[in-house]
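User: As part of a screening pipeline, I want to sanity-check one entry by hand. Below is the sequence and the SMILES for ribulose-5-phosphate. Please return the complex as C-alpha cells so I can compare it with the automated output.
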Amino acid sequence: MLNSHQSCNIGFVGLGVMGKSLALNLADHGYKVAGFDLDPNKVKDVLDTEQSERRSDISEARIIGCKTLKEMLPKLTTPRVIVLLVPAGEPVDIICRQLIESGLEADDIVVDCGNSQWTDTIRRESEYRGKLKFFGTAVSGGEVGARFGPSLMPGGDADSWKYLQPMWEAVSAKVAEDGSQIIKNIPGDPVTEGEPCTTYLGPNGAGHYVKMVHNGIEYADMQLICEAYHLLRSLLGYEPEEIGKIFEKWNQGELNSYLVEITADILQQYDHATGAPLVDMILDSAGQKGTGRWTSISATQMGVPAGIISESVYARALSTLTQERENASSRLIGDIELGDIDPTAVEEAIKNALYCAKICAYAQGFQIMRAAQEEYNWQFNFSDIAKIWRGGCIIRASFLQKIAIAFTENPNLENLLLADYFADALEHKQKGLRQAVILAAQSGIPTPSFFSALAYFDGYRSEILPANLLQAQRDYFGAHTYERVDAEAGEKFHTFWQEENRPERKV
Ligand SMILES: NC(=O)C1=CN([C@@H]2O[C@H](COP(=O)(O)OP(=O)(O)OC[C@H]3O[C@@H](n4cnc5c(N)ncnc54)[C@H](OP(=O)(O)O)[C@@H]3O)[C@@H](O)[C@H]2O)C=CC1
Ligand SMILES: O=C(CO)[C@H](O)[C@H](O)COP(=O)(O)O
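Assistant: Here is the complex for your manual check:
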C-alpha cells in the first residue's frame, strides 16, 4: 500500500473493459482507486461491481467515482499516479493536456496502459517532461487477465518504476516455479504467491515496444492455429467439435497454451439460434487494431526477417476481401490433385507442423526485439521477457518456460532456433511441417504462415542462398556493386556488364 486509506492511491481514467478490471484488481490488493470515465454509466458500473464483490470485513468503498478530472486530482496521494485505459491515439494526448490544465504537477506519474504505439510513448515522454512524468505500461490478458492478473510490460523513467513496482508486482499474474500460472480468479481473494509477470523493460517506449512484439507473435500464433484447424477441417473433413477435442488433447502436451485452450473451447460451442457450430455462423473477416501490422513494419524497417508475423497480418487483410473472394471463387479454379491420405498420420503431421511453426514465429519475435535494442538503445533481458509472458498474457504457453531457460543459459543466443531444446524439436518434428505444407499445396488450402515458417527454417539453416544471383542482378541494372566470396568483407566490386569482355573493377 502506498498511503493512508483516507486518500486514493491511484486514479483511473477510462473504466471500460480493461480499466474496470484493473481497478478492481488493484482494490483487491488493498489499493484505493479514484475512477473517471467520459461515460457516467461506466463509473456507476465499476462502483456497483466493487460494492457487490466487497468482502463483509471491509466497510469502506475501495473505489470512488469522480465526475471530472479536476475532482479526481485532490483525492489522490502525491506524487499522483493516474492510469489511462482509453483507446490508443488522440485520447491519450487529450487526457494528458486536460490533466495538466486540471493541476497535475511535474512529479505526478501518468501511466498509459493502452495499446499505444511505442513511438507515441517516446514522443509523449519528452513532450510532457516538466509537466508530468509519462510512463508506459502495456497490459496483456484481456478482461479476465486485467481483473485477476495480467502480464504487465512497463517502460519509462527508472524513478517512476521504483514507485510503481510494488503495485504492478501485486496486481500482475503470478507463476509457480515450473512456469505455470497460479490461477484463482476469485474476487477479493487475489493470488499473492509466485513470481510476478512484470519486470522493468527499459526507458522510453520499451514497454510498449515489447507489447507490440507480443501482439505480433499473438497474430502469428492465432493464424497458425487457424491454419491447423483449416487443414483438419478441409483436408480430413472433421467437424468443429471433433477438432475442438483434438485441440483439447494437444493442449495437454508441448502445444499447451492459452490460445490452443480457448480454440478447443470455441470449436465445441454451438450457435443458440441455429444449432450449427458457432464458428460456422461467424463471418470469416478478421479485424485488427494495428499492433501486428506495427510489428511487421518495425521488422521490415530494421531488415529483420519476420515473414510469419507479416503473413499473419496479410492473412487477416485477405480475409476482409469477402466480396472479392466470393466473386473469385467461381472464376479462379484450383488445379487440385490429392492422393490417398491416412488421417491419423496427417493429424500427427499437422500437430508437429503447428509446433515447429510456433517455434519459428517466437524466434522471429525475439529477433525483432534483439534488433530493436541495438536500434533504440534498450538492453532487453530476453529471459525476463519470456518469463513475464508465462502467465497473464494472451500468448502464455508452456514453452515460454523453455524459452526463458534457453535465454538464461545463453543471454546472447543468436536465434531461438539454435537453442538445443528447439533445434532438437525442429530436427525431429520438421517432417510434419513439410507434410502439412505439401498437403496444403496439393489440396489448395491456404496456409501462408505454415509456408512462411518452413521457408524461414530452411532459409535460416542454408549456408548458401541465391542472393548471389540477386546481387548480380542489382549490379547489372543499377551498378549497385557486390562483394566477392574470395575478397575481404566490405570490399565492393562492379562488373561493367555493357562493355566488351565485361571487365570487373573494385569500387
Ligand atoms: N480489450 C482488451 O482485451 C485489451 C485492450 N487493451 C487496450 O486497452 C485500452 C482500453 O481498451 P478497452 O478497455 O478494451 O476499451 P473500452 O472502449 O472498453 O474502454 C475505454 C473507455 O475509455 C473511455 N474514454 C475514452 N476517452 C476518454 C476520455 N477522454 N476521458 C475519459 N474516458 C475516456 C471510453 O468512454 P466512451 O466509450 O464513452 O468513449 C471507454 O469507456 C486500449 O488502448 C486497448 O487497445 C490492451 C490489452 C487488451
Ligand atoms: O492487446 C491485446 C491482447 O494482447 C488486445 O486484445 C488487442 O486488441 C488484440 O489485437 P487485435 O484487435 O489487433 O487483434
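Points to compare against the pipeline: Confidence is low (pLDDT under 50) at residues 1-5. The longest helix spans residues 343-376.
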